[in-house]
Amino acid sequence: MIPHVLAELGYLLASACFIVGLKRLGSPATAPAGNRLSAWGMLIAVVVTLLDTQMVSWTAIVIGLVLGSGIGLWMARTVQMTSMPQLVALLNGFGGAASVLVAGAEFLRSELAGEAIPPETGVVIQLSLLIGAVTFSGSLIAWAKLQEVMTGKPITWPGQKLMTGLIALGIVGLAGWQLTDAASLLPAFYTVIGLAVVLGVLLVIPIGGADMPVVISLLNSYSGIAAAMTGFVINNHVLIIAGALVGSSGIILTRIMCKAMNRSLANVLFGAFGQTAGTGGAIGASSEGLTVRSVSAEDAAVQLAYAQQVIVVPGYGLAVAQAQHVVRELADLIEKNGGTVRYAIHPVAGRMPGHMNVLLAEANVPYDKLFDMDAINDQFEQADVALVIGANDVVNPAARSDPASPIYGMPILDVDKAKSIIVMKRGMNPGFAGIENALFYHPRTAMLFGDAKGSLSALVSEIKAL
Amino acid sequence: MSEGIIIGIVIFTLATFLGFELIQRVPPTLHTPLMSGSNAISGITIVGALVVAGGGFGWISTVFGIGAVAFAMMNVVGGYAVTDRMLRMFSKDGGGK
Fold this sequence. Notes:
Radius of gyration of chain B: 18 Å
Strand order of the largest sheet of chain A: 3-2-1-4-5-6
Largest sheet of chain A: 6 strands, parallel
Oligomer: heterodimer
Structural class of chain A: alpha/beta
Number of domains of chain A: 3
């Protein structure tokens, strides 16, 4: 064992690594080194803990370490980039579970040793159990929705909110009772965990699949807060610092996602958005009178081959079709002909914050060609062609102009301002939110119908043949 | 309230503010690696898990501890490894992996 002061300094060093590591995530150039620094911090924390504690059983530790590292590494190596939201959801849940187990074990240890638990420690143990368990079960539901193991539609029933509220009240009541009454703690302890697991399920099932980016951001924050609470339980500052950093990160991402959808967090969590398909807005009623202009791959190829400024607007449909690599190929051809290609990325283009950027990076698209909504929106007017691939609601001008539309007020990419617009789409079905899109009927819009990957491949071979 | 808890609250509050400052500077392009990387950081619960697993506080605690170490390690190793895998794909010239 090492002197405890040395251990504390070791934890401080670990915290510093986390902080500088996160700072280096501020730019793609320094990010890989930042992540590695953060990992070094974790290694330091682990080694310090092993040296600082009087370990009785190494077997248990080795079993846990080997099992966890093996599964973790396997998941990290095999996951598809399109499935990244599911992985992050799972990891959030595991973090929650770890907090529950640590706080729970600490509680049981004091119980069995007959130690009196001071009220403030009691409170942090309860918080750790509650937040951890909600994070765990909520994340598993989010995973199931993203993986499409269960329906992505909101699951609601009459009295659901009342039920959720009662369970929350029950948890508070039980937790309070445990703090005041020293007797019969164990049944209450297990009941709190059980109820918190149910609460996590109830909080996530009424939320639609399209809102999962917000949910996993929020659960990300919870997993951090749970870790911080566990830090209070075992009185360890590195847990409190790291947990608080993650907690604030998740909250920032949650806020960005909500803003990008023009919805309040309360509306996302309790609004059951996407349940009633297509109340429509004005376009829905009048779409019969409007005409859609469709274009052949050949004509679209000619247009793209001679365009100077092309802005590609990728949506999730692009990722579903696994068409990122063909897009890159198309962009290379356009650039070879003297044009420039940039990518306009809406914050909710993928299934989690920044998802589309990762998918394009996987296809070797340089990151300085990826532009955020705010950075590129005033550039559409100069664009010869805006190429919309599998995006729908995020380019719907109704969000700007039609107060009756359910997405009115949502910030969108101003694709309709481009000199010409090519929209690649399977058919005329409305998008996730079930809303008609005025862009498809725009006089400068040409629709290129078909599967994104097939259409893009056709464009590539047409341009090559020119 | 014990002094330990008060110090904890002070540290928690300051670290939260620091977190807001740091994370706000992360560009949207890196938000997915940020999430997976911060996931790995929240695996810091491993510190508590190791003590619980190896401390010899009775078999229930040990079972809880093994579970906690395994879950936290999945977070740590899975989180850092996948973040590294993603960040390697981001390149300025689009040169390759």
